[in-house]
Amino acid sequence: MTVYTLTRSRRKTLAIHVKPDGAVEVRAPLRLAKREIDRLVASKLQWIERKKEQIAVYRAAAPAELPPSYYGDGEFERTARDLIKMWEQRLGVTAAFVGFRRMTSRWGSCTFRTRRIRLNTALAYCPQECLEYVVVHELTHLRENNHSPRFWATVAGVLPGYKSAQAKLRAAQWILPGKNQA
To answer: Which CATH architecture has domain 75-180?
Structure first.
């Protein structure tokens, strides 16, 4: 049986996360029985092992230092804001706030309720198509607060080549600090 850390909350579903250091974290509803949680985790052992192998591959492929930025001084945020304005118009949405910060495991985030978008400053080390994809992805969450087929249809409808950007971001996962920490 896999050792894991259990966190209970008022959520409806069980979620399993493999952390950058290989630790397994399980988030479960308050009333879900421990034996049921153990059973569900056991049913996902192959997936957990595959994730741990992916982490090892990312770590092995990670260069000792970051590549040069794709953007000049101050250009990253300016470019991102320009892309946001353009895609807000195309998608018919408006973000109440756009922020930039160094995130450890995500390229961007959207808080649907407050309409806040945050972009990872590590995107400065990725090609512009990756930045544009993350902008479209997060702004689409202002229309669809999930990853449903309708969400992905919206993304594909406005950005048909998004899978190429996704692949580049997967290959650049080592840039995220949480992906490199032991």
So the answer is: 2-Layer Sandwich (3.30)
